[in-house]
Amino acid sequence: MISLESSDLISTGTVRDCYLHPNNPNLVIKLPAGEKREARLANIRELRGYQILMREHVDLFCISHCYGFVTTDRGTGLVCDCIRDDTGAVSKTIRNIIATESECDIRYNLQVVEEFCNLLISKNIFLFDLNPGNIVLKRMDDGTYQPVVIDLKGRYENHEFIPLSSHIAYFARKKLRRRCDELIDRILVYRNKGFWL
Ligand SMILES: Nc1ncnc2c1ncn2[C@@H]1O[C@H](COP(=O)(O)OP(=O)(O)OP(=O)(O)O)[C@@H](O)[C@H]1O
Ligand SMILES: [Mg+2]
User: Fold this and answer.
1) What pLDDT, on the 0 to 100 scale, is given for residue 197?
2) CATH of 6-81, one of 3.40.50.720, 3.60.20.10, 3.40.470.10, 3.30.200.20
3) pTM of the model
4) How far apart are CA 123 and CA 137, in angstroms?
């Protein structure tokens, strides 16, 4: 069994706590935050979402890969890549960057995100939970950013009445375009308002 310390906690989302793997700095362990259904199911949804993506694409460099479940003293966790900057620091989400770095170059950030969205659309990489808290910007030594999606459960969860986007590429592409537009809009709104909606 893996023992997790409070100091291993990287960050918390709505339904999961994300810990550094104590035995491997390149991995994280995600644990349900609380007993609610959404929290309990988040890891299995993410693993299923990951498996769907892996069936569609041989090699994806723009996501945090998942490796299955481990037992910890805080419950069963999902092991995934820990995304780090070239300096070794754990990469920050777009949301964190905008919220904590008042001097961040928003135009460059937007350009990076727009190029990333174009790549997802051109390669049919159907990632739907594209909010600024689910994408980290990995800082490279040359000063550029590489976006990496660190939350894949949106690919499995489909709340459409008739889930056409899960089966028909045309609808999936339309949904991806919509999600990309919403992502850009959110970044602008958050930046302009200076707080999180
Ligand atoms: N692979 C990773 N590498 C680095 N940091 C990560 C990674 N996965 C998660 N994190 C950090 O942990 C936070 C929460 O993770 P995650 O998005 O998986 O939780 P969640 O509760 O499922 O999210 P949501 O609020 O979108 O439902 C992220 O916003 C990010 O700061
Ligand atoms: Mg998330």
Assistant:
1) 40
2) 3.30.200.20
3) 0.92
4) 20
